[in-house]
Amino acid sequence: MADTFEIRLVADDTAWDAFVHQAVGGTVFSTSAWLCCAAAATGGQVHRLGCYRNGRLVAGLSGLARRRWGLYRLETPELTPYTGLLLAPVVGKGPAKGEAAQHRFCTHLLDHLAKHYDRVFLVHAPAIADVRPFTWQGWDAHLRYTYRLPLGDSNALWERSERRTRTTIRKAEKLGYQLRPTGDVAGFRRQYEAIYANQAGGPPVAAALAEHFVAAALEAGLAQAYEIASSDGPAAVVAFVEGFDATYAWAAGADPAFNHTGAVSALYWQYLTASPHQRFDFAGANISSIAFFKRGFGCDLVPYYAVVGYKSRWVKRALSLRRALRG
User: Fold this and answer.
1) Do residues 192 and 253 lie in contact, with contact meaning Cβ atoms separated by under 8 Å?
2) How many CA within 13 A on the CB side of residue 175?
3) Is residue 283 one of the residues assigned to a domain?
4) Of these four, 4, 142, 206, 230, which has the most CB atoms within 10 Å of its CB?
5) What is the pTM of this model?
6) Which of 196, 126, 167 lies closest to 296 in space, CA to CA?
């Protein structure tokens, strides 16, 4: 008997979150609670699409749906590292069965997306290494990178880090910089704005939106903010997100006046050595100067993909022309 497939929005939080927890590609950023925080902070409606085979949820993806410039879009929200493809684990004697299942599920999901959205932008978690079903249907795929670290052994972490990073950590700790939790969201915003104060393009995400999102995530218990400070005051703030077996660097701010102190390196070091999780994800290593800083901790470089699809080539051309005119 032939399999039956259905694509529909998943309405039940419990069912969706149970699927996310066991799915390939599942992270805290695809959970119901995170998506609700994202919607409250950035606008849009949470869409959790499920692919059901014979009534069983076997694949899915999520994002925020909203209308912009007359076009209906589904997107991984701002300040959200990953919300792309999710796949139920496939048991088989070799990789071929899992690959075939993924491609089959993706075909149904992509057909649905093409009918219901004008533009779709998704960032897949690193566990989703095969994006050919998207590119074979004309989507654009963009390779990105993040840095990851195994946690649990502070001596091993110290040995992995580069000498320049160890030197800056020692300097900051000699100056008395210590990590402490903070709930000062206004202080986070000041530090966030300080990073980009002298940059012509300004911050990649508006400061008001970042502040609102951090406040919502802290209130929901999805994130914890820490600042590094000495007797001279706080030098930097980072909000971390803890989920499943990993913890993520999420939103950060730092006063450039304290760059010479090594305080930011000490912030991450003191957090990493205290974390109970198995793995740390820097959530991006795609800007040269930022990647150089993160590399100093001796991380593993890990690729991941962002994909963009359009309802038609005319929509793609229109949006490309709009970007060109604005640029």
Assistant:
1) yes
2) 25
3) no
4) 230
5) 0.93
6) 167
